[in-house]
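#struct-help
A.M.: can someone run this one for me? Single chain, 362 residues.
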Amino acid sequence: MELKKIAINHIHEQLGAKMVPFAGYNMPVSYTGLIEEHNTVRNAVGIFDVSHMGEFLISGPKALDLIQKVFSNDASTLVVGKAQYGYLPNDNGGIVDDLLIYRIGEEEYMLVVNASNIEKDWNWIAKQNEGFGAIMKDISDDFSLFAVQGPKAEDTLQKLTTAMDLSAIKPFHFQVAPFADTKYVIMSNTGYTGAGGFEIYLHNKDAESVWRKILDAGEEFGIKPIGLGARDTLRMEMGFCLYGNDIDDTTSPIEAKLGWATKFTKDFINAENLKKQKEEGVERKLIAFHMLDRGIPRKGYEILDMDGNTIGVVTSGTQSPTLGHGIGMGYVKTEFSKPESEIQIAVRKNKLKGMVKKLPLI
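D.P.: on it. Structure tokens below:
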């Protein structure tokens, strides 16, 4: 299958990015190197092109009813200009996808879904919509998405707009306004790095111009383009789940500690079973850990107790550029999930010590 290309694919190639297949797209994984890019975001500002993400519009009188049925969080609390994180539960106790929902009008919502799940999510929501008749539109191929992240993100972006006071946009809020000589962007105080910043949704035709202007505006702060490799290490330091690794169609959201994004004040798909899990407890839980011994945990490595018995599996792992040692996430039997508990990771033939930690890891 031929890889899809994001709107400014040619710019990334001109910048010398290492391009790799990801979720069916040709995507930049790194430019100058993962560690340098990671530290740039933590300490200053970086710009990611994450235009592979999917966007759906759901509108009409029944839009909210449909969203409330398929979405774990309570979208009835959203006002125009506010966003919310949650997930799409399936019929079997697992997760179809995790996503953000934006209320962009009185009867209009934008859903931002993972690139690898665009078709799956669309089909799932469309199937549920048969009883509601909400208006659905897939705009994934029409929009680009840039994430400008880091402590200097606001200073960088404020240079490019007088229509918005970015300091007044609270986390999980957004504004629709002119920016960088374009008539229409959605400026959202969200991100996947824990370093602060904004995500900018814009039409593909404006992508190249806006990308260049952001890089120019951030030059004094040392802005750099950042690839998906550093996005992954940044999110792991915060303990943010990655669909396909830490959560999937077989993963209980209660096991994944997503109970905070699960509102049982309304009826939604599989709510009764998930409520029972939350009340009665689950047999395993998602943990974060760091390595005490030298070694890098990787997805699929076994997690052991101190007697060498298998108690779980690593779902995400890396060498933390910020901390300088191995970190990871994984599922363990619930009795081993208490923070500061010692565990072991089976790295090849070695059993290396680690410790369960509270999030975030930095």
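A.M.: thanks! The chain has a mean pLDDT of 98.
D.P.: also worth noting: The chain is about 20% helix and 35% strand.
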